[in-house]
Amino acid sequence: MLYICKNIQEQLTRRGKTLCTAESCTGGRIAALFTSVAGSSEYFRGGIVSYQTEVKSTVLKVPRHIIKQHGVVSAPTADAMRQCACRLFKADYAISITGYAGPTGGTESDPVGTVYVSVGTTDDAITQRFVSNALCRTEIQDDVAALAIKLFLEYIEAH
User: Fold this and answer.
1) Do the bridges between strand 93-99 and strand 125-131 make them parallel or antiparallel, or are there none, so unpaired?
2) Which residues, including other chains, have CB under 8 Å from residue 111's CB and lie 6 or more apart?
3) In degrees, to the nearest 5, what angle opens at C-alpha 28 toward C-alphas 43 and 90?
4) DSSP string, 122-133
5) How much is the average pLDDT of 63-77?
6) DSSP labels for 37-96?
7) What local confidence, expressed as pLDDT, does residue 140 receive?
8) Is the pLDDT reported for residue 134 higher than 90?
9) Alpha carbon of 117 to those of 14, 15, 20: distances in Å?
10) What is the rounded end-to-end Cα distance, in angstroms, of the chain?
11) Rounded to whole angstroms, how far apart are CA atoms 53 and 77?
């Protein structure tokens, strides 16, 4: 995974672009992966672990009506988290993720292991639903953090 983070670092540094993260169920794993590569301060502005719903709305500034209408684990919430993170950190790009890492939580339509990831700028993004087949909480967190980073790499390579 670190070689993908290094690839992203090289691309963003070359372009003079910055990145931030807004994480929930991954608890900061995405930010930790990026910052484990030397030189990450060249492009990585920071991250927020907005684990509780209240933090998403009061600190990250996700509109409460989005969470109320769509749920905290949803594509619209992940999308809003990305947009809000870009503004909060004054970053060109953001990766956001919200989901159910388990062992509790989840719904019939979104079981444990379901996450919504949004990558992009304030105005352009890819937002996708993933379901991890990992067996425990830490494996789900690691799995979906890697999925989010790979999705971001695909996004910047296409733009």
Assistant:
1) unpaired
2) 100, 131
3) 35
4) SS-EEEEEEE--
5) 97
6) STTGGGTEEEEEE--SHHHHHHTS---HHHHHHH-SSSHHHHHHHHHHHHHHHT-SEEEE
7) 95
8) no
9) 25, 23, 14
10) 21
11) 10
Q: State the Cα–Cα distance between residues 59 and 37, nearest whole angstrom.
A: 27
The residue among 109, 105, 144 whose CA lies nearest residue 128 is 144
* pLDDT, position 113: 94
Coil, helix or strand at residue 16: coil
Q: Answer yes or no: is pLDDT of 64 > 90.
A: yes
Tokens read off for 14 = 């070359």
Q: Is the pLDDT of residue 135 over 90?
A: no
**pTM confidence score:** 0.97
Chain-centroid distance, C-alpha 49: 10
Which pLDDT score, from 0 to 100, does residue 62 have?
A: 98
